[in-house]
Amino acid sequence: MGVTHDLIVPGSGTVAAVLSTILQLCGEMKEWQDPCTRLHQRLKKVLEGLKTLEKKKKRHPPPEALDKYMAVVSNTLCYLEHYRGKKLVFRLMKHQAMMEELRVINEETDAVVRALGLASADTGNWKKQYEDDQRTHRELLASSVDNAQEVLAELQDARSQQETMLTLKYEVELRPEQQDAEMTKLLRTMMATVIRTSTTSVPKLPPWFLPPYEIRFDPKPFARGSFATVHRGVRGSDKKVVVKCFLVDGADVDEQTRQNIEAEMNLWHQFDHPNVVKLLGASHMSTPPFIVCEDATNGDLRSFLARLDANKLQLWKLLYQAALGLEYIHKKSVVHGDLKLNNVLVGAEGQAKLSDFGLSAVRTSAILSETTPYTAGALRWRAPECLKTAPTSASDVYSFAMCIIEAVIGEPPFARLDDDSVHEKLRNGEIPEKPEKMSAEVWELVAAMTNVDPTKRISLSRVLKTLKDFADGNLRSPPQAANPASELTENANLALVDTDIIVGILDNVSAMDDQAKEQSMLQLVRICVEDEERPVMYEADAIQILTNLVKSGRNNYTKLYALQCLKWAAVVDAKLPKLAFDSLRDSVPEIPAKELAFVVNALTNGTDQEKEDAAVRCACIATRGTGGLLREVALLQPLVALWQSMSEAQKLWIGMVQPLVSLMRNGNDAHKLLAAEAIGSLATENEAIRAEIVRADAITPLVDLLRVGSNGQKQRASHALKNLALQIGVSQKIVQMGAISPLLGLVRIGTTQQKQTTTDLLGSLVLPNYPNRPDIECETSIAPLVALIMVGSAEQKETAAGVLVDLAKHDETRSEIARVGGIAPLVGLLATGTNAQRGYAASALMNLASNDAVAVEISHEGGVALLIDLAWKGNDQQKTSAVGALANLAFNDSIGAEIARCKGVGALVVLMRTGSEQQKGYAVGTLRNLTVNDDIRAELAHEGAVDPLIKLIKSGTDQQKESAVGALTNLSINDAVRSEILSKGGVAALLELLRMGTDELNEKIAGALGNFANSDEGRMEIAREGGIAPLVALLRAGSEQQKGYATDTIRNLAKSNDKIRAELVREGTVPLLKNLSRSGSERQKESAARALQQLNGGCCILM
């Protein structure tokens, strides 16, 4: 068979068939019909020249030249498909681009003629003709734009006339530099023609208007709402955007509604705020109307929070940012009216951005349009008054409360109720019940935002303040209903920010009297207990000022407060050498017993403010320490004897513990933070105080703070637990209280200081509690095993990883391993572990990767490249586990692409060829998933995958055969790879398997044969290898799916030649196809009818 017969244009068919299609499309090119027809003639002459060379058998054309020829044919087809049948205004706008693209294709044709060594008389002639064509084209355009009848033939309604006017004005007013004088004249002529012959008024050009041809977008939406579809797109050459097409026919929008939409777009286009999605352009005249926005690459907030557990840790920050966006549009007198989490987007830099606000006119049009039904589901976020009245800023506050519920529980409000029940709840003024996952403080905020009386709802400014507290981890008091007077007072107090206070204290403290110094330093400690406030302190030369106060202050508490700030500088922030701090601490005198008694009494019996002041003093006193006061206390005495043996001062030190523990349990956030600070410092003293802290059950509230506390509370709790773990037997109690899981969370996302403290604490907890291999092998809790992988000895890491291999086989434990942070440590073992550790880690990841969310995290942690490295270089067990993990990961298309980028294809092909049976099975399964990507198909062929795939089809296990069939099915979509499969006997192997395979396997084989039958070469091969009889057998007695695939393949086979058609008729296809065309599914009916039509087109006359 000749070379010309084998020329296939990828994705389109043979060159001859494509040239025929090109000729048909030329007839739809209006002014450009003649130049395009001449280009077709040039391409056809090239094909004829190739055929002549082939007949004369002079020489074979270079393969790369043939590739260039097929590429030019493909480019020509794409050009015509893009520009055919366009309206006059489009052809006018794209005149220059159309000319330039056609010139380039002609020059590429010249290059092909030269590369093929063909004699062509028109190689130079087309250029002169092209210049004539340009002039002719301009003359035709000039005639058309001045012809009222021709212009109005395409603009038969006011909307299309106005859209055309706006498009023309867009080019003339906004982009005059892109048009030459002649084109500008044509644009103005057409504008005048429309104005002259139309009854519509000339619209003003909005600053945001974009003609549809300025945007290219994927017609398949990635999201769909109640009134719009959302698409990925590109503006200009490469700017990624999001295009929202409204579910309303532009022709159905009346003039008043269109004006309302225009007003909303005008307002949105002016908005400029980091938490509001930027409007880049829109068209309210198009069919359908659309808007173009900046691309928020992380999707909507609900999806973002559900994607990874780590994302949930940003919940309050993102809700706070969304509320900032809402406050901004409210200040612009815009009501959102449709708040829910899928209208809050997350940008590339992790910022929440409000979207879809103020689009009431578009929303109403979509609801009234026949193109989309109204969805009552939006009621779940609506305020009760919106059943009767339009949304307001107060109803937005209510809806934002529903967003908080949605964010916390991961489901819409009233998730278990149908729409009618939700409507009834709203009519009765009922809100959803408090979710179990929601804390009391958050619920108080929600309740304050959802008062059935809109005038009594908390204001948005108060909501913002509370959300910021949540985001910062410092919520100090629950929100109250709106009180204008108190809000004014609070705003006035907020004017003096903490930064100014810190600088003011440090600048002036040396000149204050003793009482003022004490009060100012107390305030400084209160502020600087928050880690983020202390950098301001250091910038203001605090170390020297505080050191002077410790050395020369005359008031004990002034010294203690200064010492506390210096402790943070030395222990937490590394701003002061530890030895220097120890020296300063030793210079502070002991605290008198009566002062200790006063502090203990205030902790127990004081008001909230007195307890807070006392907690500060306790923390500072504990920093100074007992000075050895408790060193001689004998712990082994009975409790009563122990108490009787203590001095009064010793009893007071011990007596501080229980009130501090009570504050950690029942106090407000400030109490808890300061009490945990004090307990942590006391726990550094000696075993006597540590024993008392444990006896007072401080471990329970400390672990609670690890779970749900603010950043500062978590850091203090982990520091205190680290010190308590020094006590014999205490580490086991801390583990039993569930501390390990929240500690693992801190290791992943905590501050640098938290990570260090937490890692040390984890070591203190797990190392002594799991000294032997059997202790680890008996553990069924996930968190301790993950901790052992992070901080254990080599043997502990290996054993823990081995236990996780088995636990990761179960769905519920897979999610738990990911939730507590087990993925990163396992991936870490792949990189730095011993041989045994790497093997266990790969096995665990193989089991874990069957969960898609976990697979994404494995990829995010860098696991793909490490698994590929192990598949190349590991021992036999490691290779098996690594390729098994890759098989599961490859179910995710984006991870599949990553496997290819990381050079994984070569390793998989090698294992498929030379690996063990299990390795071959995993490798071919991975390749089956990878072949959904066309780029990877070509790479697979290049790496030599076709031969081993065919070999597995012939002699592999049943599972290997099934995967290999799937891989060949996908590979055969690529024209070049399909040819290679055909040349190496792939069809023969598939047909042999078809004759003896299972029903499920035969279904897949029939689908694969359908792909091969798309080309003449494949059809001939199927017939030559005896494939018609088994296909007819499937048509006669196969499953419904098998019949469908067999019909498609037979339809394509019937396109071949009379000999094949005759064989199809002899095998009895005609009555079977007729029966299917009458009683099959819609798809089967259509395919059977086409097959019969193809058979009728041959030499056989069917009755």
Cα gyration radius (Å): 38 Å
Report strand %.
under 5%
Low-confidence stretches: 360-377, 475-497, 627-645, 1098-1103
Averaged pLDDT: 82
Helix content, binned percent: 55-70%
Query: Total strand count, please?
Result: 10
Structural class: mainly alpha
**Number of helices in the DSSP assignment:** 61
N- to C-terminal separation? Answer: 34 Å
> How many strands, which pairing sense, and closed or not: the largest β-sheet?
6 strands, antiparallel
Shape: globular
Considering the chains and any ligands shown, give keywords for the structure.
protein kinase activity, globular, Transferase(Phosphotransferase), domain 1, Armadillo, Kinase-like_dom_sf, Phosphorylase Kinase, domain 1, six-stranded antiparallel beta sheet, 66% helix, 61 helices, two-stranded antiparallel sheet, Protein kinase domain-containing protein, single chain, 1103 residues, disordered C terminus, 4% strand, 10 strands, mainly alpha, Ser/Thr_kinase_AS
Describe this structure in words.
Among the domains are: about 5-145, no CATH class; about 205-295, Phosphorylase Kinase, domain 1; about 315-355 and about 380-475, Transferase(Phosphotransferase), domain 1 (Orthogonal Bundle), CATH 1.10.510.10; about 500-590; about 775-875, Leucine-rich Repeat Variant (Alpha Horseshoe), CATH 1.25.10.10; about 905-985, Leucine-rich Repeat Variant, CATH 1.25.10; about 985-1100, Leucine-rich Repeat Variant. By secondary structure, it is mainly alpha-helical. The strands form 3 sheets. Strands 3, 4, 5, 6, 7 and 8 form a 6-stranded antiparallel beta sheet that branches. Strands 1-2 form a two-stranded antiparallel sheet. It contains 61 helices and 10 strands.
